[in-house]
Amino acid sequence: MQEAFISDEEREKCRKVAEAFREALEGEDLVVLDAGRFGFVKLQYYKPPWGFDSVSTFLDAGTLFDDLWEEWMDSQLLDYAKDTPMVEMEYDQIFRCMPKEMQDSYVLKKQEFMEAAGCGFLSGFGRP
């Protein structure tokens, strides 16, 4: 019998998280794949012919959600700061420079991702 590193229940939760972010991260240089009994894998920064520069494995949906949220949020902040002096700032500094309404919209967007992923199982969550 093969050893499983992720439970069937947690695998299903991870699948929902990956699906919730699939479209939003479509233009990014990453892909999240179901690796079966090994969990979920995020492959990032593809460089032909060598492959991916970054490989991350996830065994729980909360960690996967947090990581994909960070990826999405970072891309939004970089887009916002593009062609401005803010591009040299840290992500949290860029966020604080945004208008309050825009900051609030990201908090709501996080809630939308959580609802799409069925993340009632997440007890807390990181930055907006």
Please give a structural write-up.
The chain has 128 residues and is α+β, with helices and mostly antiparallel strands. It has one domain. 48% of the residues lie in helices and 16% in strands. It contains 4 helices and 3 strands, in the order αβββααα. It has a 3-stranded antiparallel sheet with strand order 1-2-3. α1 packs parallel to α2 (61-81) and α1 (8-22) crosses α4 (100-117). The longest helix is centred in the middle third of the chain and has 21 residues, at 61-81. It starts with 7 loop residues before the first helix and ends in an 11-residue tail after the last helix. The model has no long low-confidence stretch (mean pLDDT 90).
Q: What is the gist of this entry?
A:
With 128 residues, the protein is of the alpha+beta class. It has helices at residues 8-22, 61-81, 91-97, 100-117; strands spanning 30-34, 40-47, 51-58.
Strand order of the largest sheet: 1-2-3
Q: Give the CA-CA distance, first to last residue.
A: 42 Å
Order of helices and strands: HEEEHHH
Number of domains: 1
Strand percentage, roughly? Answer: 15-25%
* Helicity, as a percent range: 40-55%
Tags for this entry?
128 residues, globular, alpha+beta, 48% helix, 16% strand
Write the layout of secondary structure elements.
Blueprint: H1 8-22, E1 30-34, E2 40-47, E3 51-58, H2 61-81, H3 91-97, H4 100-117
Antiparallel strand pairs: 1-2, 2-3
Helix pairs in contact: 1-2, 1-4
